[in-house]
Design goal:
The complex is a heterodimer of chains A (85) and B (148). With 85 residues, chain A is an alpha+beta fold. In chain A, 27% of the residues lie in helices and 27% in strands. In chain A, strand 3 and strand 4 form a beta hairpin. With 148 residues, chain B is an alpha+beta fold. In chain B, 34% of the residues lie in helices and 32% in strands. Chain B contains 4 helices and 8 strands; from the N terminus they run E-H-E-E-H-E-E-E-H-E-E-H. Classes of the chains: A alpha+beta (85), B alpha+beta (148). Chains A and B meet through loops of A and strand 3, helix 2, helix 3 and strand 7 of B.
């Protein structure tokens, strides 16, 4: 299934991209599963998405916990904890 | 309700005047955050930012009497002493105005997708989130909580 990935702040710089269209296997059905899928790319991806790293996610522009479901066509964003205000 | 995510500066006096234009309003509480010491760039997630602030304001509205509310958050390049954020809440009485204003600010710190990058003499670095910001937001989690 197709997903649109977005990256922000330090994650965007580390991965060298802001947006990516990606095709993932049907089994990748949650935010946590997608993260594991991305770790398999190795290199910076492994470093950025390692389990101990604090990475937040949003699905279709809503904050999403690791267990949040994802489906074809979703916009999934990854970013560090927010620091506004 | 007015929510604006903008590069431009804002004027507290003008914003508060707009909130006072109702005879039932008896209190307006406002908060301004400004850049402390180090120049920075603020990045955000257009679309999600506005929606997340709207949800925070709606939550405040369900807990307290919020007659009107303005939230302005800037992004882009900001220098020391520049204003970053404004939250202003109009209510019938001060208790609701103070509490709703503080609640909105605490939630904005942990829920609205903004990131600060500081520009120091030795280079630029992304600001790390503080655990104290999480605990400030968590103390509001009891839905029965009305005021501090």
């Amino acid at each position: 299934m197709k997903l649109k990935l977005r990256f922000f702040a330090s994650l965007k710089e580390q991965l060298g991209r802001e947006v990516e269209e990606i095709e993932v296997p049907a089994g990748v059905a949650t935010v946590a599963a997608l993260r594991t899928h991305l770790v398999k790319r190795g290199g910076e991806w492994q470093a950025a998405f390692a389990e101990k790293k604090l990475v937040r996610a949003a699905v279709n522009q809503e904050m999403a916990p690791a267990a949040a479901p994802i489906k074809a066509g979703d916009e999934v964003a990854f970013f560090p904890p927010v620091t506004g205000g | 309700m007015k929510i604006s995510v903008q590069k431009e500066d804002f004027d507290l006096g003008k914003e508060v005047d707009l909130l006072r234009k109702d005879e039932k309003v008896g209190a307006v509480a406002s908060f301004i955050g400004q850049v402390r010491e180090v120049a920075m760039t603020l990045e955000h997630y257009p679309g999600m930012t506005e929606n997340s602030i709207k949800k925070i304001v709606e939550e405040a509205n369900s807990r307290w009497q919020v007659m009107d509310c303005t939230v302005i958050h800037r992004y882009g390049e900001l220098k020391p002493m520049d204003q970053i954020v404004l939250v202003a809440v109009a209510s019938g009485h001060r208790g609701d105005a103070f509490a709703a204003c503080e609640f909105i600010m605490d939630y904005l710190k942990t829920q609205a997708p903004f990131w600060k990058k500081e520009h120091r003499a030795d280079g630029a670095r992304w600001v790390e989130a503080k655990a104290t910001d999480d605990s400030a937001a968590e103390r509001w989690q009891d839905p029965k909580r009305k005021a501090s």
